[in-house]
Amino acid sequence: MFATFLVGLREGLEAVLVVSILVAFLVKTDQRRYLPHVWGGVAVAVALSIGAGAALQYGSTKLSFTGQERFEAITSVLAVAFVTWMIFWMRVAAKRIAAHLREQLSEAIGMGPFAVVLIAFLAVVREGLETALILYSMVDFAENPAASLGAAGGGIAVAIVIGFGLYHGAIRVNFTRFFTWTGVLLIFVAAGLLKYGVHDFQEAGDLPGLNDIAFDVSAVFPPGTWYAEVLSGMFNLTPTPTVVETIAWAAYLVPVLVLFLLPRRSPRQAPAPVPAPSGEKSE
């Protein structure tokens, strides 16, 4: 539940920030007449995202056992790709996203109301579709899918409240620190999703080694205990993983975590001109 809450909070806050930037720009430039178009684009994006999640759930139930395992494995790998792209993209784009959105919206206003709707739709639908795919992959292996979805909804609700407070100046958030810590947690979540996807590929017969167990720590983390359930639900850590699962988990987690935590290089400044020696004319 905490993992899906984290995904809902992170994705929800990104979407809320985008919408608040668009709304604030229209209000400050005295162009409130376009606010209904922004909210219309947001509503269409939300509806499409919910529909995509429902379609994934419905489509998977129509497959055979092998087909369902393969489908769930593919969606898990896609979810890992989206999570990885999301955390690295936000790490780079966070400082310039506001200026970029304002520029796009300004151009859209010059083109007409439909362009404003489209800008708002495209700004939100990416987050919504990512959320639908990631949550489908995570809820699929949850013991209580309804509770996991409820936790995700709670995360989105908290994001909306935070966004409302930010817009009205009641809340201040250190977004650099927030996105860094949630990014680290999501890398662990993504590693667990990849491990789950690899296991599904093994179940479908696409990868070997289903019965080759890497280690057995069931004596330390007995199934049913609260701490074993937390580790399983949050990071998909199981007491008897296969060798291939374990290799995939470590091969993703270690390099991605190192790359994410590496300090970013500040842009190099041009060297200051060297003053001409006394007695010589500088050019």
Describe the protein's architecture and organization.
The structure is a single chain. Helix 1 packs across helix 4 and helix 3 packs antiparallel against helix 7. The chain has one domain. The chain has nine helices and no strands. With 283 residues, it is an all-alpha fold. The C terminus is likely disordered. Helices cover 73% and strands 0% of the residues. The longest helix is centred in the N-terminal third of the chain and has 29 residues.
What structural category arises from helix and sheet content?
Answer: mainly alpha
> In percent terms, what proportion of residues is strand?
under 5%
Assembly type of the chains comes to single chain
The SSE order reads HHHHHHHHH
The helicity comes to: over 70%
* Extended strand count: 0
Gyration radius, to the nearest Å? 23 Å
Low-confidence stretches: 276-283
Number of domains: 1
Specify the biggest β-sheet: none
Amino-to-carboxy terminus distance = 68 Å
Per DSSP, the total helix count is 9
Summed over residues and divided by their number, the pLDDT gives a mean of: 82
Q: Label the overall shape.
A: elongated
